[in-house]
Amino acid sequence: MTVTHDLGAGAPGAPVVAGPELLRSAFRRHAAGVAVITAPGPAARGGRPAGFTASSLTSVSADPPLVSFGIGTGSSSWPAVAEAAHIGVHLLGEEQSALAATFARSGADRFAPPTRWTAGPEGVPVLDGVLAWLVCRVVGRVPAGDHRIVIAEVVAGDAAAREGRPLLYHHGRFNALRD
C-alpha cells in the first residue's frame, strides 16, 4: 500500500512539476567546484581561443583517466569545443572568483589582460596561477537536451600547480570553504 500526503501547493516539501526552474532551484543548493574549460581557437574564429566557466566537471574514470563536463550548444564557446581535438581543464582557487566571472561573462574577451595564459600541450590555452590544470583529448560529445556532455581523456597536466583551497559555486555565487 502506498501512502501519500496532500501537502498543498507551495507548502515546503510539496512536489513541483518538473521543468527548468525546478532543476535550477534544486542545484542552487548544491555546492560545486569551479573550473574553467579552454579550447584552441578554430580557424572560423581567427584562431582565437575559447573558454568558459563550468561547475559540471566530473571525474569519470581513473583507468583510463577520463573527465566530463556539460556545455550548452548555444554557448559562444561551443563551436570551438565542438571542433577541438584537445581541451584544457583548470581548477580554480578560492581567490579566483574574478577569473571565474570573466570566463562566465558573455561577450567578454576572456583571454585579454588581466588573464594570464600560455599555449600548452597540443596548443591548448593553459591558465596561469590555477590550483591544477589538465590537457585532455576529446573522446566523445554526447547530446543531452540543449547541452552536450563532453568526455575527455587526460593526456598531460599539473595536479599540484600551486597550493590552495578550491573556489565553489553555491546559490548563484562564488564561495570558499569554511573551516
TrEMBL record:
BP-aspect Gene Ontology terms: pyrimidine nucleobase catabolic process
Superkingdom per UniProt: Bacteria
EC number: 1.14.13.166
Pfam families: Flavin_Reduct
Domain called Flavin reductase like: residue spans: 27-176
Keyword Oxidoreductase listed: yes
GO MF annotation list: 4-nitrocatechol 4-monooxygenase activity; FMN binding; riboflavin reductase (NADPH) activity
Keyword match Oxidoreductase: yes
EC category name: oxidoreductase
Keyword annotations of the record: Monooxygenase, Oxidoreductase
PANTHER family (UniProt xref): FLAVIN REDUCTASE (PTHR30466), FMN REDUCTASE (NADH) RUTF (PTHR30466:SF1)
Name of the protein in its database record: 4-nitrophenol 4-monooxygenase/4-nitrocatechol 2-monooxygenase, reductase component
Organism placement in taxonomy: Bacteria, Bacillati, Actinomycetota, Actinomycetes, Kitasatosporales
